[in-house]
Specification:
This protein is mainly α. Helix content is about 60%, strand content about 0%. It has a two-stranded antiparallel ribbon with strand order 1-4. Strands 2-3 form a two-stranded antiparallel sheet. The model is unreliable at about 1-15 and about 250-260 (pLDDT under 50).
């Protein structure tokens, strides 16, 4: 037996002391490296950078008073600022590879359902968002939100992860144009125009997807990032070719390019004048207390469960969840996410929330909060480099969503498909996320079906009391439309 090493002996190579960065983020402990975390953080940023361009489009309309929120550049800069700060906070405090930005879906509700109500101004709509964020933060600090999370069965958390995998894969094929929603057609979706080879972007997506899959199978480090950057370059080349006349009106049968061209201006000074653009209780005087409360509740329920599903999926993909399906530092993750909702409203860019696109960085090896810090810093830099960020087309980022969706769906084997009382709720959870384009709808359907079936087979006493409560809340969520009509 070897004798123990004395204190005067130098450590062996395997016992080499970790640097402070490694110790703080537990990088080696989680099976990663600093280089991998940096690369994973950049992958996540490139995959979700579209929000900088998309959020100004969604929030670009007018409120009920006829006023616009701000210039698109101002919305873009503030969107990147809030996303950067909150993502860095997630990395430092929660040490989790999860990025945050303005929540798609919630921003559409704010723009098209709240800001357009009679007498409502953008400040009033953002006040609703701030109130929702404050309430959800209180629910986290009191332990209620985590208690609900712990009450959800492990297999249902797995189903949520699989459903989100299907959801983001669907987002990828739709955003790329490979699958499209046909106007006035008999089917709700259809194959895009790749079959007739009439659009460059779809071809760019297909090439990027095939490249990413090949690199992944060959186990090339940075496969996702290499593919995103390579496909972006391809898109720029395609745009240059199109401008030479290949795919113009003079060539009706040719290709049509919608890939962004390289910008003339790379650096632009940001405008953060939207910060503080909210009125906390303005909506109560404009639309009445009851309607305002219903709106706060609707946003709250969506935020409440979207993040819970997202962090479970990210933790599972990274191999960080415990035996109960819970990621490390759950409370810290939920607190940062709740504060992000407040920050988004106070910044005038709608509620910020956890992004499932973080799975792309995790799929490329990210395992710690260092990746989130890299993503956050990239967002902050993009406040100055917004024109350059806009070069990355959705066709270049979409393949990452499809590939990571596949990786997440592999967890489906962990569900007991022989037990119908488990399999049926899991099935509803998984299919309704992509079919309704809503994580919350999928979770809600799964929870309601689970409670119903447990009661039917005589296991009602085994249902956690909080599951009964959230079932009632989800029922209210699904009937919120008729409820709002009845309330008036």
């Amino acid at each position: 037996m070897a004798s123990p090493r004395t204190t005067d002996e130098a450590p062996t190579r395997s016992e080499k002391p970790l640097n402070p960065l490694d110790r703080f983020f537990h990088i080696t402990e989680r099976g990663s490296t600093i280089g991998t975390e940096i690369r994973g953080g950049l992958v996540t940023f490139f995959t979700m950078a579209y929000i900088i361009v998309l959020n100004p489009i969604i929030l670009g309309g007018k409120d009920a008073t006829g006023q616009a929120l701000a210039a698109p550049a101002t919305i873009a800069a503030t969107t990147a600022l809030v996303a950067g700060v909150m993502t860095i906070l997630m990395g430092v405090w929660a040490n989790f590879p999860l990025a945050l930005a303005t929540g798609l879906g919630i921003n559409a509700v704010v723009a098209f359902s709240i800001a357009v109500l009679p007498k409502m101004a953008w400040q009033d709509a953002m006040g609703i968002v701030v109130l929702e964020g404050i309430i959800i933060t209180v629910l986290v600090l009191t332990g209620f939100r985590q208690a609900v999370f712990n009450a959800v069965p492990t297999w249902l958390k797995t189903a949520i992860s699989v459903g989100i995998g299907l959801f983001i894969a669907f987002i990828g094929v739709v955003d790329s144009g490979f699958v499209r929603v046909p106007p006035g057609a008999a089917t709700p979706v259809e194959l895009g125009q790749f079959g007739s080879l009439s659009t460059w972007p779809v071809l760019v997506f297909v090439i990027g997807l095939v490249l990413m899959v090949i690199l992944l199978v060959k186990k090339v480090r940075g496969a996702i990032l290499i593919s995103i950057l390579g496909t972006t370059v391809l898109g720029i080349v395609v745009e240059a070719v199109a401008k030479l006349g290949f795919g113009t009106d003079k060539n009706p049968g040719g290709w049509k390019s919608t890939v962004p061209s390289f910008p003339k201006t790379i650096v632009d000074a940001p405008n953060f004048s939207l910060l503080g653009h909210f009125s906390l209780f303005g909506a109560f005087t404009k639309i009445g207390a009851i309607t305002a409360i219903v709106l706060v509740f609707s946003l709250l329920l969506s935020d409440f469960f979207d993040t819970m599903g997202t962090m479970v999926a990210i933790g599972a993909e990274a191999g960080l969840n415990d035996e109960n399906g819970n990621p490390p530092k759950t409370r810290e993750i939920l607190i940062v996410d709740s504060l992000a909702a407040v920050a988004g409203g106070m910044g005038g860019v709608s509620s910020n929330t956890a992004y499932i696109e973080s799975a792309s960085g995790v799929g490329d090896g990210a395992r710690t909060g260092l990746a989130s810090i890299v993503t956050g810093v990239a967002f902050l830099l993009s406040t100055f480099l917004a024109p350059l960020v806009a070069v990355i087309p959705s066709e270049a980022a979409a393949p990452a969503l499809v590939v990571v969706g596949f990786l997440m769906v592999t967890q489906v084997l962990d569900i007991d498909w022989k037990s119908f009382e488990i399999a049926i709720p899991a099935f509803f959870t998984m299919i309704l996320m992509p079919f309704t384009y809503s994580i919350t709808a999928g979770i809600g359907a799964g929870v309601i079906m689970y409670v119903i079936l447990q009661a039917v087979v005589g296991k009602a006493r085994k249902i956690h009391p909080l599951m009964w409560l959230i079932t009632v809340l989800f029922v209210l969520y699904f009937i919120r439309g008729p409820l709002q009509t009845w309330i008036g």
